[in-house]
Every structure is written in C-alpha cells, then in structure tokens.
Amino acid sequence: MKLYKYLLLVALLTACGNEEKEVAQKAELKNQITLNDTQIKNAGITEGFVEKKKIGFTINASGAIDIAPQYRVSICPKMGGFVKSISLIEGTHVSKNQVLVTLEHPDFIQIQQDYLEVVAKLPYLQEEMERQKLLVDQEAGSMKSLQLAKSEWAVYNAKKTGLKEKIELLGINVSKLNNGSIQKTVSITSPMDGYVSSVTATIGSYVEPSQQLLEVIDTKHCHAELRVFEKDIPKMKIGQQVELKVTSTDKIIIAKIGLIGREIGEDQTVGVHCELEKNEEVLLPGTYLNAFIKATDTEAYCIPTKAVVEMDGKKVVFAKTKSENGLSTFEPFEIEILSEDEDYFAFTIKGNKRKIEDKLVLNGAYDILSQFVIQEGNE
Q: What is the pTM of this model?
C-alpha cells in the first residue's frame, strides 16, 4: 500500500512537471516564427551583418526659458518703512529710474536731521581745532587739547560721510537736504527697463530691509536652460545648433549652445545653456521647451530602417535562431534607436541574448511580422 501511494505521488508530480514545461514551451513559441524555404524566398527575406557608418545624431532634451541673474532684479528697501504708494501690477512695463514704490517712516526724517546737525557742528569743530593749533604754536595751549579737538573733528567728519552715504543709498537728494529740505518719503526706482514679474507689497504694510517688494525682469535677455543626459554630453560642443519647440505651440526657435555644465545631477543629467539667435517676445521665463540638438556625425552600428518594425509597442529586429530540414526559426530582439536619417537607424540591441555583430534580417522584416499576426489570429 505504501509503495502504491509513493508511485501515485511520483506520477502526479511528473504530470505537473510536464504540464509546466508544455506551458513554458507554448509561451516561448509565441515569441518566434518558423518559415520554410519557399516562404523565405517569396518574401525576399535576407540576412546580413550591420556595419558602422557615420550618422548625424539628434539629441532630445527638455528645459525651460530663463533669464540671467543680472537681468532679474529683486526690489527691496534699504531701510524698513511703511508702503505709502504702489500702482504697479504684474506685466507692467517700467523704464529705468521710474518710481516703483514710495515708503515713509520717522527714521527717514531722523537720519536727515542727524546729518544736518553734524554738518552744522563741523565748522565750529574746525575753528576749535585751528584755535588749539594756534595756541600750541604760541606755546599758550596744551598738545592734549589740540589732540582732543582733532579727534572730535575727525569723529564728526566720519559721521557726516557715513550719514551722507546712507542718505544717498535711500535715494534722497543731498543737495536739496543741504538747503534744509527734509523729505518725509523715500522713492524706490527701477534699475533697468523691463517688466514687473511679481508684486508682494501692499499699501500700508511695513516692509523690512531684506523683504522683496516686487521683481523686475528684462525679457530681452532670455536664454534656454536644458537638461541633457550624461551619456549624450560627449556628442556635444559649444556652438552646436539647437532647435527649441515651445510645448504650447508648433513654433521652432533656433539657438546655439553657449555653455555646457560641469556637474552631473542626481537624475544623471547635465545643465546646458543655450543662447537664442534672436529675441522672441512670445517667450517668458518658465516657458517649457522640447529641444533637439544637432550633434556632430558619429560612427555607430546602423541598420536599414526597413529592417526595424514595431512589435508589442517595442522597436525590434529579427534574427534567425535555428535552421534545419528546410525550416528556419526567427525571433524578435528589442533594440534602442540612438539616431536616424532617411535610410538608417543607429541602434543597440537591448539585453544580452543577441550581439550586434551577429547576423540580422536586413530585408523582409514586415513579412516576418505579418506571420506573427497570422499565428496569433489562429490561436
């Protein structure tokens, strides 16, 4: 009885094993096709070795329009104050030296008052220093008193210089101030022609010296910042032509590579700076782009375009893997297309099941593909 149970168990395991093998063989057969010599001849299927050719590479990349730092200005106050007036919105064109924001604060008045007090006292200190010098020369005064007079004059003169610089930094006219005209408000002007890209200030709010009130950009100096995969960098050089396509339109913009980054990012890409051939008013900072970089001709393994077909959403080529008794078996191998011209694809074979130096089907790939379709329809 025990022997019977053992033989029964072995039989069941053997049957299961055979069934699994049969399923695996069927799955494998779906990925190959067998043709006879007549079918191969009628379809004109031929094999051969691919050769290395010089082929122009087009590198695909993505990026966005940006502006160099010197043409993007954050407008911040030099001293804290309350916003008295601002009449700009995003997109407003401004000219150089145009008033953007007006601020007010008691400190603005105080610093001008301090300056005028120092200016008023300096003549007295100057005269006192000269008087002490005269007394020393006449041996009627002490050197210590002269040194104190000189020191006090120097301190106030330094205060005058410092206050004058601060006042000029605020944009207050020192000449008018010297005539006794104290300004209650301070005007912040634009350092260049451009457009207001953002406004964060509101009337009546208090703003700190480091707080951005608004930003002005000069869109005449746009450029493209691209991210290119590390593997494509050796194919690139300064001056190469780049075609930029704005994703929202079909417009093609021509640019040239100006700088190539020297640091690889976490996503294995390198930054590439491109200069536009001419200013495009339709481009704004942040505009997303697709880029096509015309790389120099490179030698690579190339296969005729007619030898490449699409199968299950993948680009494949065919190769004969078995031949006997007038029957030949062909299998598809997925490839990666590196570049293309009118007649050839530069490519590599994915995986390690087939080497690029082995024979491949160069003519009749579509006929082989049609047999796969017929086979699937009969199943």
A: 0.59
